[in-house]
Amino acid sequence: MWNLGNFFLGKFPYGQASIPACAEMAQKRNIKTGRLKSLLTKIDAPCLYHGSFQPRRRKTMHRFTLYTHPYSRGTNVVWMLKECGAQYDVKLIPFGEAMKSADYLAVNPMGKVPALKADDTVLTETAAIITFLAEQFPDKHLIPAADSLARGEFYRWLCFSIHLEYAGLDKIHRVPDSSERRKAIGYGNFDTAFVTLRDHLAKHDFIVGDRFSALDVYFTGLLNHFIRVMPMRGIPPVFTADEPVFSAYIDRHTARPAFAETMAWAQQAAAELEKQA
After folding, report:
1. How many domains does the chain have?
2. Which 8-state DSSP code applies to residue 86?
3. pLDDT in tens, 128-185
4. How far apart, in whole angstroms, are the C-alpha atoms of residue 131 and residue 117?
5. Same domain, 71 and 125
6. Omega before 236 cis (within 30°)?
7. What whole-number distance in Å separates Cα of residue 170 and Cα of residue 155?
8. Does 242 lie in the same domain as 149?
9. pTM across the whole model
10. Contact partners, residue 202, CB within 8 Å, separation at least 6
11. CA 81, CA 39: separation in Å to the nearest integer?
12. Res 188: pLDDT
């Protein structure tokens, strides 16, 4: 039986079968628009992402267990899990002895949170975890298609976020800046790193593309921590003046329902840990 999906994929380079192009070809083959839409939704091979067809991967449901603390980067993972609509369990790990215990070191030898167990596989590092989750829930469109240029941009900014975090921490801890140091480290200096991000966000609502992605979870969490959370804890702010571009970016994404749910979870988790202390 003739397969419309295979026909389109055979006529276009991988990932380039746009809806208008498919519609035009369908018209030439006397396929009615309604029939086209019906067939496209039933195709086994491709699915839509940013207007192009990509292979639909068979979804494997993993059993997720998150080891975390409400005052850690693990909050970003909780946010991501909620954006994905994932089912998961949470094991709260108090700071201090519990995080360095033999039981937890068997999960993460670094003795840090978060750690995500997917079945029997343990993942650490927040950036890696949220990227993995985005790939596990392709229907949520939280990461660009695997072979797209946008996926390359995603990786660029994912790696950049690590430099950004180090730049911010160096600023907070007043690490001396010098031309020799700028040559030796990947991000140059604080101003270079954050101006690069500010210029990008001044022109874009999202880190990559025209929709919310896993990167926006990570960058919103990072900027919110530096600009709003740390000063509330008595830590000197990394900026001496207001940053309207960053503030607008934070406000835009913290308005999402999943973020509000995450903050409610964090308050409840903190209260639970306090009772256990």
Report:
1. 3
2. -
3. 999 999 999 999 999 999 999 999 999 999 999 988 988 888 888 888 888 887 777 7
4. 14
5. yes
6. no
7. 23
8. yes
9. 0.78
10. 245
11. 32
12. 78
